[in-house]
Specification:
The chain is 0% helix and 59% strand. It has strands spanning 9-14, 17-20, 23-26, 29-44, 50-59, 68-70, 83-93, 98-106. It has one domain (4-106). By secondary structure, it is mainly β. The protein has a six-stranded antiparallel barrel. A two-stranded antiparallel sheet has the order 2-3. It contains no helices and eight strands.
């Protein structure tokens, strides 16, 4: 089963963070192609804090937890427009014939 026809959205994400003059900034950014959908749910993080997930992004690319992610029309120079990867799961379909990552994005 080929899901590539469903990968119609492109997001930009940071591959790391650096400190420049005492300010945390994204180091490098890259893009990932996948399926982006709005989804509102409460995520409980490992420390017990709760965050609101606002989007789900399914892709063959595994984006690291806590990475900054900019939606398709967002300004990547503005960190305030970025969402954060709050959760990620690895899913397999048809007995492992096709696999992908499902990311929960939020603030």
């Amino acid at each position: 089963m080929d899901l590539s026809a469903h990968w119609i959205d492109t997001v930009t994400y940071s591959t790391g963070l650096t400190f420049v003059d005492g300010t945390m900034t994204p180091s490098d950014t890259t893009t990932a192609i996948g399926r982006l959908e709005e989804e509102f749910k409460i995520i409980t993080l490992a420390g017990g804090q709760e965050r609101t997930g606002t989007h789900r992004f399914a892709s063959e690319t595994g984006i690291p937890l806590q990475a900054l992610v900019w939606l398709p029309d967002a300004d990547t120079d503005d960190q305030g427009q970025a969402l954060i990867v709050l959760g990620r799961r690895y899913a397999k379909l048809l007995g492992g014939e096709y696999s992908f990552y499902e990311h929960t994005l939020g603030r």
